[in-house]
Amino acid sequence: MRPTEAKRLQKVVDALAKIKAVLEGGKPERALRLTTALHKKLADKVSGAKTAKKKSSTNKYGSFVKAQWAKVSRANPGKTFTQLSKILAKQWKELTDKKGAVAAKPAEKKAVASKKKAAAPKKKKAASPKKKVAAPKK
C-alpha cells in the first residue's frame, strides 16, 4: 500500500471514529450529517468527479491582456512570460492614465456582457399547456 493510500484510509478511519463518538454522545442528527458528508466525499473520490467551480467573468484588464498578448509576444520575441506581463501592465497603466478610464474595446465589451449574463437570473421554462382529455362516453 502506498503512503498516500494509507493517509486516505487513515482519514476515513478518523472520520468514522468521530461519527462513532458523536453517536455515543447522543447526537444522531449530527452523526447523520457527518456520515452524509463523508459518503459524498468518498463517492466523489471514487468517481473522480471534481466539484464544479463557478466560472467567473473576465475583468477589463484580463480582457485587455487576452486581446494584446499575441501582438506583444510577436513584437518582443525571446522575452519571458514575466517580462511580457510587465510590458502589458505598463501599456495598461498608460491607457488608464491618459483617459482616466479605459475606452470600451471589443474584448472589454465581451467582459461586460459575460458579467451581465452571469449576474442575470436564470429563466424558468414555461410549462406547456396541458391537453384536456375528453371524458369517456357512456
Radius of gyration computed on alpha carbons: 28 Å
Q: Please tally the helical runs, counting DSSP H or I stretches of 4 or more residues.
A: 5
- From the spread of the alpha carbons, the general shape counts as flat
Taking the sheet with the most strands, its summary is: none
Distance between the first and last residues' Cα:
75 Å
Fraction of residues in helices?
55-70%
State the low-pLDDT regions, or none: none
H/E element order = HHHHH
Decide which structural class fits the backbone.
Answer: mainly alpha
* Number of E-state strands: 0
Mean pLDDT across the residues is 76
Strand content: under 5%
Verbal overview:
The chain has helices at about 5-25, 30-45, 60-75, 80-100, 105-120. With about 140 residues, it is mostly helical. The radius of gyration is 28 Å and the shape is flat. The relative contact order is 0.08.
